[in-house]
Amino acid sequence: MNKTNVDEMLLQMIEPKLREIQERFSRGEGLGSDDINTLLLKSQFNHINHLDEKLNEVTADVGSLKGEFNGLKGEFKLLEKRFDNLETRVDARLSTFEANMKAFESNIEFKIQKAINSNMRWSIGLIALLVTILKLIDVLADKLPNLF
Questions:
Q1: Cα 132 to chain centroid, rounded
Q2: pLDDT digits (tens, 9 = 90+) for 44-67
Q3: Is 21 exposed, middle or buried (0-12, 13-18, 19+ CB in 10 A)?
């Protein structure tokens, strides 16, 4: 209990009167309104001191909670840094993946284009050979009846 000088002075001032009231009460004498007021004053003083103690406890608890809260803030900052680091790493890997996919797509497109070009050359070459053979047959067919 943190009592001030004023608290001590108030207690010293009413203490003699309180002892007198206790003695009269223990002898069975009645109490006057001044006596009751003095007892109420002592009761209120005790109540205020009790509330003061509880306030000190609550203040200490709040201070402790502030410390714990600051600790949690630090942990959240650390967690935030870890997520930022993770996000950076994921972004880097995603960029690498996207670059690899573009290269893969370009490679596939190149291979498909190459296959189409090869097929076109073969098709054009076969068509040219077929036209040549048919023209040769046509020319030979025109000349064969004249030979016999």
A1: 77
A2: 888 888 888 899 999 999 999 998
A3: buried
DSSP state of 32: -
- Listed in sequence order, the residues at least 6 apart from 18 whose beta carbon sits closer than 8 Å to its beta carbon are 38, 39, 42
How far apart, in whole angstroms, are the C-alpha atoms of residue 53 and residue 85?
48
Q: Is the pTM of this model over 0.85?
A: no
Give residue 55's identity as a one-letter amino acid code: L
The answer for residues whose C-beta is within 8 angstroms of residue 11's C-beta and 6 or more apart is 45
42, 46, 47, 51: CA torsion to nearest 10: 150
Q: Which residue has the tokens 């003061």?
A: 52
